[in-house]
Known about the structure:
The protein is mainly alpha-helical.
Amino acid sequence: xxxxxxxxxxxxxxxxxxxxxxxxxxxxxxxxxxxxxxxxxxxxxxxxxxxxxxxxxxxxxxxxxxxxxxxxxxxxxxxxxxxxxxxxxxxxxxxxxxxxxxxxxxxxxxxxxxxxxxxxxxxxxxxxxxxxxxxxxxxxxxxxxxxxxxxxxxxxxxxxxxxxxxxxxxxxxxxxxxxxxxxxxxxxxxxxxxxxxxxxxxxxxxxxxxxx
Length: 212
């Protein structure tokens, strides 16, 4: 919703519309960053620190490049937004799934291309296409990587649990008892009765006196 509002506002002319659109995207980054944090992005502090340091270097370098060409009234808001965007991308990478990490990086790349336009720097051919493609792919990967768990980048392992297929009931013997001592005794009694019945049956061709 916030991304949609940001897209609409950025299509309008004027610095006020641009600032409102950037604010809508910033609110979305706050939501993403909060979600990644409560989901365990800071569980491994060393990894989170290394990821944050790497993204800080990238974000600072991009800001230095576009800073001279930014309108004076937009420099501070753009710097604040860049800090929040970089934090979101770092949180996505520190969370763990590759889908969220790639999504955060694509979001940073898409907005950096947009910032070069704002600063009147040379753009890539078909810049609008690449900006929108990166943005849509970033939103898809950030959302499905966190909630869906199955993306073209990561599939859940297919494992078969022995406990799921194991019969939880105790084995039962032909004698009618369970697995305990009573069941074993019943099995022995049943076996003995079967043996006696077998002995008392006169086989064919055997004299009756042989049978006890």
